[in-house]
Amino acid sequence: MGIQIQNISKKFGTYTALDQIDLTVPSGELVALLGPSGSGKTTLLRIIAGLETPDTGSIHFNGEVATQRHVRDRRVGFVFQHYALFQHMTVFDNIAFGMTVKPKAERPDKKHIRKRVNELLLLIQLDNMADRFPSQLSGGQRQRVALARALATEPKVLLLDEPFGALDAKVRLELRRWLRKLHDEIHVTSVFVTHDQEEALEVADRVVVMNQAKIEQIGTPEEVYDHPATPFVFNFLGHVNLFHCRESDDDQAVAIACLNGIDTGTVGYVRPSDICIRRNAEAADDIAAEVIFIQGAGALPHIELRRLDNGETVHAELPRDQYRQLGLKTGEQVFVHPTNVRVFAPNYQI
Amino acid sequence: MSIFFKQRSVLPGFGLTMGFTILYLSLIVLIPLSGLLFKTATLSWEDFWGAVASARVLASFRLTFGCALLAAMINGVFGLMVAWVLVRYRLPGKRVIDALVDLPFALPTAVAGITLAGLYAGNGWIGQYLEPLGIKIAYTPLGIIVAMTFIGLPFVVRTVQPVLEDMEKEQEEAAACLGANRWQTFVRVIFPAITPALLTGFALAYARAIGEYGSVIFIAGNMPMVSEITPLLIITKLEQYDYAGATAIATVMLVFSFLILLTINLIQWWSRRHAER
Questions:
Q1: pLDDT band at B134, cuts 50/70/90?
Q2: CB-facing half-sphere around the CA of B275: CA atoms within 13 A
Q3: ipTM metric
């Protein structure tokens, strides 16, 4: 089921949480709402669920207005950051809850409920833990139970509020891959909120980047990462080097600007992985720099350099083989060459 | 023995705290109570039986435990409602109401008893309207229930209130998302979460009501077999210098109270079986 969000605004007192948001979530997609805390992403999710009422605007489910519909009639599954499992119920009863509170006429019989819960337990790989209480489970297991509980009533939309936020790094990674796989199997329209750009880029079909109550960009993970629409998106989706191109400078900074056909007085944005390091100057716009710190562990060794001309720090990431080939040492003088410089209209601020 | 008691912990002072706890409990609770038992033990079985199984004493047991149970149940229901309103709603003068709840704790029980008796007597402010309807409260078992309810109310409110305040809003939101209506959310999600606290409050109110003397005797009328509570009977025996008879009744009361509180504690333990171990 597709979700259409039109002109939604929400204020809490004088604080604007959402400012005229328009968004369409196509049926069957997994969409990430990505943004820093306070960007309004959780509020938007809660408005979709019906847990919060918007000040203006409307929500449509498959074209039908749902703005006034009560949360229990919206048929959404909601997964909370801190699980919100019912502590006094077993895993089985937690998952069965949604089915057992249905009006008598629609309620499935006991046998059917048992069958459905067992299916879900298999799906979340906790089939031997039906009789445990939530307090006896680990964080990752609790979140999977919460997910199964949300799925038990066959919701039209699945909403997840920072579902992996309370988990440790390794479990988080496992669980988000599992969620992706699960979504590929059941194809329920899903929206999840996260402040972790890696998570959003890895899991989602489409990423909605939010900042200060507004949407900055909507696109596939590749689109938002490779073609960020604003400096905020560029900055939020990874590390970034800023090259200030001042008019008075007749050094390399201007050269970079010129290289890309850009007016001076602007800022060039370059990802650390788009910085070339070489021992000898090969182009006119190569910048002399000194290696000040090397972090060699990890898939992409991280090198910190200081420009000799203006003392600014440049971050670079090299592929491992190139890193080994270069054999860099701290204190060495090298040349850096930025590629893929992005420039935004100067009135933007990060 | 030390193997059973000693637990490795980074906090020092286990021996000291354990010793202090036992000493304190002994001085304040165990020694007086065992004194009671020793005094009772001076009676022969026949005398003991004669003291506790007379019709008048049995009637007082029935009255005390029965009225206390009803009063605690009334407090369980209305105390929960008061706590709910104080936690969930914004009312004008909420702080004043909140402070009023503790008043039965602070008021001398005799004052409460005389006030209640005055109000509910046939010519009192409230009693004068009830009497024509055929409802007599003062000087009947009904009056005893009123007094016991009055002194027990704060226990339920004060034990349930913090638990209600700490309840995660998400649990209710989760229930609503899963399609539960308000009533189902209350019965299946909220109520089980506050049950242990409610039982604690109930047990405290019950225990307090069983032992209550000051506020009850003024409104009870103290007619033997009808509205005479056990604590009053004990005082009567003491005034007749029948110390052993008084302690015999007290011992029975003690044992019953202990059994009841133990049962409530077991139910409570059962209702918290899901809690983190």
A1: confident
A2: 11
A3: 0.80
Tell how strand A189-194 and strand A157-161 pair up: parallel
A5 touches B: beta carbon within 8 Å:
no
Residue owning tokens 């000799």 = A308
**Does B136 have pLDDT greater than 80?**
yes
Domain positions in chain B are 11-41, 52-276
- Contact check, Cβ <8 Å, B276/A88: no
Residues A285 and A254: their CA atoms lie apart, in Å, by 8
Q: How far apart are CA A171 and CA A201, in angstroms?
A: 17
Name the CATH superfamily for B52-276.
MetI-like (1.10.3720.10)
Rounded to the nearest integer, the mean pLDDT of chain B is 88
Q: Do A51 and B274 touch (CB under 8 A)?
A: no
CA distances from B71 to A112, B64, B107, B116, B149 (A): 44, 10, 18, 15, 5
Helical ranges in chain B per DSSP H: 2-5, 14-25, 31-41, 45-52, 55-88, 94-101, 103-106, 109-120, 127-130, 141-166, 169-177, 182-185, 191-211, 214-220, 230-239, 243-271
Check CB contact under 8 Å for A98 and B178.
yes
Contacting A with CB below 8 Å, chain B residues are 168, 170-171, 173-181, 184, 188-189, 192-193, 271, 273-277
Q: Please count the residue pairs, one from chain A and one from chain B, whose beta carbons lie less than 8 angstroms apart.
A: 75
Q: Name the closest residue on chain A to residue B167, using Cα atoms.
A: A84
| Res A249: pLDDT | 44
**B192-229: per-residue pLDDT in tens?**
989 989 999 999 999 999 989 989 999 888 888 888 99
The mean pLDDT of B70-97, rounded to a whole number, is 92
pLDDT of res. B137: 84
Q: Do A51 and B181 touch (CB under 8 A)?
A: no
